[in-house]
Design goal:
The chain is built from 1 helix and 3 strands; from the N terminus they run βββα. It is α+β, with helices and mostly antiparallel strands. The longest helix is centred in the middle third of the chain and has 29 residues.
């Protein structure tokens, strides 16, 4: 069920009900699902959400669907149950079936040799060049 937190001065007002109509033959079962929208009737007595019963909510759903709608859903569930063995499935073409790979029960070969160590090239740090020397001398006078 879906509800509005507040509506018409009430809290948790149910506005949608999800339902399913089931059929069974004792061994198998099938169901048809649906959803109905409810309209809040400010004139109808309000039942707090916590006090709703299954019978009351089922009555709402049946009221929205009507007798014909309820019967249609029941018929659909019974048809689904009756045709459970007639649902098509896709099988591979018999001439294109690939045989499964052969399974060998031999344990994997274990090698006792340590992993080979490869010499890595030597890493050389770049050469550091000293900054030029700064001299605090007055500029040379230019001879004229």
């Amino acid at each position: 069920m879906e509800s509005y937190p507040q509506a018409e001065g009430q809290t948790d007002v149910v506005v949608k009900v999800n339902y399913s109509c089931a059929a069974t033959d004792g061994t198998y079962s099938a169901a048809v699902a649906g959803m109905v929208n409810l309209k809040l009737d400010p004139e109808a007595p309000y039942t707090p959400y916590a006090d709703l019963t299954e019978e009351q909510v089922v009555g709402w759903v049946k009221g929205v669907l009507g007798p014909e709608g309820v019967q249609e859903r029941q018929n659909a569930a019974e048809q689904t149950l009756a045709y459970r063995f007639y649902h098509p499935v896709t099988l591979p073409n018999p001439w294109s079936v690939v045989a499964p790979p052969e399974v060998v029960d031999a344990p994997p070969e274990v090698v006792d040799a340590p992993p080979e160590v490869v010499d890595a090239p030597e890493v050389v740090a770049p050469e550091v060049v000293a900054p030029p020397e700064v001299v605090d001398a007055p500029p040379e006078e230019i001879a004229e």
